[in-house]
Amino acid sequence: QVQLVESGGGLVQTGGSLRLSCEAFGFIFSDRVVSWYRRAPGKERELVAAITPGSRTDYADSVKGRFTISRDNAKNTAYLQMNNLKPEDTAVYYCKAARLGRPIYWGQGTQVTVSS
Known about the structure:
Layout: E1 3-7, E2 10-13, E3 18-25, E4 33-39, E5 46-51, E6 57-59, E7 67-72, E8 77-82, E9 91-98, E10 105-106, E11 110-115
Parallel strand pairs: 2-11
Antiparallel strand pairs: 1-3, 3-8, 4-5, 4-9, 5-6, 7-8, 9-10, 9-11
């Protein structure tokens, strides 16, 4: 069964850290660009970070210096390490795996709540 499964969300205080995981099943993960998106209540979906098959990374300005995206192709898993979390980081976080010409896969989302 093809799917992406996110985990690692939760409730954390301002300044705290969380690490999200995105594990892939049923498709070749290593040749996909993996991205993390988030959607906060009342806001549009926002691209947070992305990592290429060669591990080049890119970040939204709002998370640069605080978040780190990485991947372990041997485990079919990507990660989002989130440090110095702020209340404005509160959102549902989704991972996406994509490659030109191939189906795009999304995870079900994991809730991150940062209390002030």
